[in-house]
Amino acid sequence: MRIEIVQGSGPFAPDAGVHVVIDVIRAFTVAQVAFMGGASEIVLARDKEQAFALREVWTDSLLAGEIDGLAVPGFDLDNSPARMAKADVAGKSIIQMTTNGVKAAVQALFAEHVFVTGFSNARQTALFVQTIEKKLKRPLVRLIASHATSDDDLACAEYMESILTERQSFSAEAVAARIRASDVAQKFFDPARPEFDAEDIDWCAREISCSFVMRVTQRSEIPIVERVDV
Ligand SMILES: O=C(O)[C@H](CS(=O)(=O)O)OP(=O)(O)O
Ligand SMILES: [Mg+2]
């Protein structure tokens, strides 16, 4: 198995057996929390207009996400894992639209297997990828750190690589420290920006035990994240 780490939202070469799209702060931490709350599936929308159009089809759904990190007028939820943890999402579909993670995921759909994760489910996802890698037609695992420059997603990608290669060269504590120190985390600690809640970083910078991974499939060309129990 070959492993490649890239940053940003693509485009990506069509040569990978696995794409793991990583968004620590905050989209795919939010996704894990939504599934833990009983959400049935997460539909990925490339922009606000598509998100509203998809709600006409997924009538029992909630719109979640952000523009510039902030709540989108007309959406039900923003991009906060802390608020997602308190929301009643049991049995609901979530339509998610975000700047980095969702944008990268919709560009990454053509690998044999596509997963999304934050740090919170990174270990579980890496261990699952290990179970399928021998059957890949294209033995390349591409770890996509969806933010083009911030260290939160890159630290998670390097952590997953260290698990996949069984080098175990990064401790979870060291990765959590890099997430907290990353550029995009800083606004959550700024008292002049109360719209960003430091509790979100507590969710994003820790491993959260659960028994599923998040796989992306397509239905009528719409990318849908489903929970796969492991
Ligand atoms: O809301 C988020 O956490 C980010 C936007 S920003 O980097 O905080 O401005 O979006 P995401 O797609 O979850 O990285
Ligand atoms: Mg992010």
TrEMBL record:
Its EC number is 3.1.3.71. It comes from the Bacteria. Its cofactor is Mg(2+). Keywords: Hydrolase, Magnesium. GO terms for molecular function: 2-phosphosulfolactate phosphatase activity; magnesium ion binding; sulfopyruvate decarboxylase activity. It is an enzyme of class 3 (hydrolase). Pfam families: 2-ph_phosp. It catalyses: (2R)-O-phospho-3-sulfolactate + H2O = (2R)-3-sulfolactate + phosphate. The keyword Ribonucleoprotein does not apply. InterPro entries: ComB-like, ComB-like_sf. Belongs to the ComB family. This is Probable 2-phosphosulfolactate phosphatase. It comes from Ferroacidibacillus organovorans.
